[in-house]
Amino acid sequence: MTDFQTDSEETEIPPAPKVKKKAGPSLVWLIPLVTALVGGWLIVKTISEKGPEITITFKTAEGIEAGKTKIKYKDIEIGVVDSVYFSEDFSRVIVKAAMEKEAEIFLRRETHFWVIKPRLSLRGATGLGTLLSGAYIEIEPGQGMPQRRFVGLEEPPGVKADEKGIRITLIAKKLGSVDAGSPIYYRGILAGEVLGWELGSDRQSIFIHSFIKSPYDKLVKSNSRFWNVSGVDVSVSADGIRVRTESVQSILYGGIAFETPDTLEQVKDNVEGLVFTLHDDYETIQEKAFTSRVTFILFFDGSVRGLNIGAPVEFKGIKVGSVTDIRLEFIKKDTTFRIPVLIELEPERIIQRGEGEIESPYDTLKTLVDRGLRAQLQTGSLLTGQLFVELDMHPDAPARFVKADVPFPELPTIPASLEQMADSLKSILAQVEAVDVEQIGTELLETLRQANRLARGAGALINKPELQETVDDLRESLRSLKSILRKVDQRVEPIAVNLEDAIKEGRNALEKVQTTMGLMDEVLKPDSPLQYRIIELSEELAETARSIRTLVDLLERNPNSIIFGKKPPGEK
Predict the structure, then answer these.
(1) What share of the chain is helix, strand, coil (3-state, %, to 5)?
(2) pLDDT higher for 544 or 416?
């Protein structure tokens, strides 16, 4: 214990430390301060460089994946989809996407979004590149106030905002085969397409939104006319059957055509805000080009089968109007029928030439009626059987007016050609029916009986030996005469004088024989004068034969008598 105490006493005690206080903040706090400043700067920088967040509403999320699906403009990525979730009523899909800072200028009220994926439409196949890269969302910048909520399109727009051209609106009563993507033609050239359509507020009209590309947009003026060329136009009328189409594409997808006619009227080049009428076909445009129309009434008694409303009214083969109404009236007084037909004539189709004041259509037609203008039904096509009304000059036909109590002026009519033929045929048949066929048959039968009796009598006459002997003698005489004529042919001409009488008598005999032989087959009564004439002829033939035989004997005894003539009696 003593040693321990001794060592403690010998140890020196150190002095107490002195603590000095330094003025100002410590350097230790500089590190967290710098860290806070850097962190704040990073936060501010991140927030300032971060693009806006937007929401896009689609019907479905087909092809969209959170964190993968990109948002592109002209194939440059400007955003990415962050999340996809349902709307409150589960009817739509809401896509939340983060956009780049530079894309903020694109987010306006008229900006459109749609999903690019493989599609097959009227415009062809699109989005085939997404088969490998995957679907993405395309953006088309628009105008208007800044906006963060958008409704996506289910189909890509037909026309991009940067494509040059004009947008026009057409109005039609029915849509037909026209749809989004249907082509618009100018003289057969593809000049635009249909963007879409909507039903008008009156539930009767359809507005068709279309786009005409440059440079064809310069051809659209305030007087331009549009008509439907969808499918194949097959029409059956009094002109026959007509088949017409614009192109194969219009057959499949429908189509519209337009033209801008030349005119002396003032037209507007600026068509913004104008609504054009879409006509059913080109003929409708031609019909509406003539605004002045006058109405007349025609009355027909015969059938008008084949005459339809809209049938043409022609004058000299040129259409001057059309049929507007066809009725059937019953006249109770005499229990007859008549058919009134209303027609509309278009005076503007007829150009008046000559000096003097131009007459009204009614005065002109009145003058023509006085000179023979008549209306008649004609067949326009034998294939279809359709009729049309023909106006032509028939000065020989009387003007027949019904003078019915109607508010329209009347034009006289004449029966159709076929109807006139039918009336003539009916008249002939009536005359034939008036003939007593039974009496004619009785008289013909009696005539045949008498002819039969005459034939039997003539046969008996031919078989008489006297007539047969006469014919044989005549044949023998003719042979001898021919032999003599061959001999005399080389002698002098004086024989002709002496022989002429013999030849004439021979010809007469031959003609009488031929006549006799022909009469054998005639149909006459047995007690008719023919039998007497046959007997008389046979006697004449016998006498002629004797004369010829005497002449032949004379020539054989005295051949020189042909030259010197017959000697007087008693002279040698």
Answers:
(1) 35, 25, 40
(2) 416
Contact 523, 444 (CB under 8 A): no
CA distance linking residue 197 with residue 177, whole number of Å: 12
Highest mean pLDDT among 4-13, 28-37, 69-78, 421-430: 69-78
* pLDDT (0 to 100) of residue 50: 74
Instruction: Identify whether residues 444 and 557 lie together within a single domain.
Output: yes
Domain match, 553 and 478 both: yes
**Per the structure block, which two tokens stand in for 287?**
């019909």
Could you tell me which residues are beta bridge partners of residue 472? none
- Within 73-177, residue ranges assigned H as helices are 130-133
Enumerate residues 6+ apart whose C-beta is below 8 A from 315.
350, 390, 391, 392
Q: Within a domain: residue 182? A: yes
- What's the rounded Cα separation, in Å, for the pair 396 and 383? 32
Domain co-membership, 473 together with 373: no
- What gap in Å lies between CA 293 and CA 343, rounded to an integer? 10
State the pTM of this model. 0.45
Q: Which residue in 80, 60, 81, 68 sits closest to 133, CA to CA? A: 68
- Contact criterion met (CB below 8 Å) for 478 and 506: yes
How much is the pLDDT for 169?
92
Quick check: 182 and 190 in contact, CB under 8 A?
no
**Averaged pLDDT, 475-497:** 60
∠ CA 393-322-314 to the nearest 5 degrees?
30
* Domain interval for residue 423: 292-351+359-429
In a domain, 3, yes or no: no
Same domain, 382 and 445: no
| Element holding 330 (H helix, E strand) | strand 329-331
Whether residues 284 and 296 fall in one domain: no
CB atoms near residue 5 (< 10 Å): 9
> Whole-angstrom Cα distance, residue 337 to residue 194?
53
